[in-house]
Write a structure and sequence with these properties.
It contains 15 helices and 20 strands. The strands form 5 sheets. Strands 1, 2, 9, 10, 11, 12 and 20 form a 7-stranded mixed β-sheet that branches. A 7-stranded mixed β-sheet has the order 7-6-15-16-17-14-18. Strand 6 and strand 7 form a beta hairpin. The longest helix is centred in the first third of the chain and has 19 residues. It is globular and about 60 Å long.
Length: 521
Amino acid sequence: MSIKIIDPAKKTVDWDVIVIGSGIGGLVTATQLAAKGAKVLVLERYTIPGGSSGAFQRNGYTFDVGASMIFGFGEKGYTNLLTRALADVGEVCETIPDPVQLSYHLPNGDNVIVDRDYNKFISNLTSLFPHEEVGIKAFYKVCWKVFKCLDAMPLLSIEDPAYLTKVFFKAPFACLGLARWLPFNVGKIARQYISDEALLKFIDIECFCWSVMPAEKTPMINAGMVFSDRHAGGINYPKGGVGVIAQKLVKGLREKGGEILYKSRVTKIILEGKIATGVKLATGEEFFARAIVSNATRWDTFGGENVKEPLIEQKDTPVSETTWRNRYKPSPSFLSLHLGVKSSCIPTNSHCHHLILNEWERMEQEQGVAFISIPTLLDKSLAPVDHHIVHAFTPSSMEEWKGLTPSEYAKKKEQDSNRLIQKIEQVFPNLKDNIAHKEIGTPKSHRRFLGRHNGSYGPIPTMVLPGLLPMPFNTTSIKRLYCVGDSCFPGQGLNAVAFSGFACAHKIGAKLGMNNWSLPD
């Protein structure tokens, strides 16, 4: 039996690139390729773009779907990836600087303020651990070294030998410095300088607040970016809400000749032999392209973890994906609360972001950590007059929500949300009596609306791995099929998936002969 190979010269190929999903990783890939001249189609299963970086409106409130602590919106350097991605398609987001990244409320009444000013942060931390002043400064100095290596070079695909050669000649010491830290995790580096176990637990929660992993499993490269960029580029909130980022990327995509279709759920990646040639929608409609990009999770793309209908059938799943599934597992999802509250219950001098942990032993347990975001402290336009938004979320596993009857499910939502409100009241007393609007999201909500396997935040290691070395890049073992997002190098976080999008677009651009020879300025 002969195998039909789609010929790019034939009319059956409608697009240069099809991107499955409009998360930030997918949209950065799409816009970068469109800016290179590629004809790009994005297929989104939901009605709005952005995935967990989207937004929704209720009764005068504009709620961020996910976190509002945004990196990558500075003005200088190569690590400000959201700024660069928007600029490449002629867009810009007006942002509001956040003076404090996070206020930690920790066991034994300890409180640590991560000020935008690096020296103030170090002063805050050393006041709690004066005997570890030398170790604290030494550890965070290493983080700065990693960050400066990243910020010295254009962050594109390290799968492209031509790019690696060019960037090495541009910044040889930065390349060598970065390669040095690739195999290491934060925990190992921190213990070289710090011996106080309480302080090491703080480093754990510093990692957990964005990686949902303790320091021993969090790659040093990622930590170097986060722990330093919050003081360099800073945390900057997009005016109008986080959803504006995706909206502007979509606008830029269309202005560059690309397109996005909503309510277009991809159910299958079409293979001709071992080559990805197109996609099939739930409606039965098919689209073909010279390259296919999956912004779905690795599990939704290749199966595993009891996924019933992955985009690639089991018989076609590469062996490398089985290896990946042995190394990584889905992180928990979240129980989320989107509250509209009377402004009188939030002091005007409050910080925007908070983390509450009452017991160190519960950091990785079900609903052990509570995150709070109050974006209206930065942008009052997101809520009606004299009201604030309080977005709170806590890690929660899908297993805790399975097998419930509708009444049991509703009861658990109310009980768990009330417990979360009680935690919020540790910082903001009398909040419950001032709630004007309430939305409750569960792991089932995240799975339904975001299309993520078990509503997961992303992959976490099943064991201690050597830094970022085991993370897969954008290329897969199926020809013309690429992956992008938090299942790819360098992992989770908005700036990280933006990096993945830059890298994926660069790799495909190299294959399609669309890349500029010179590196970005």
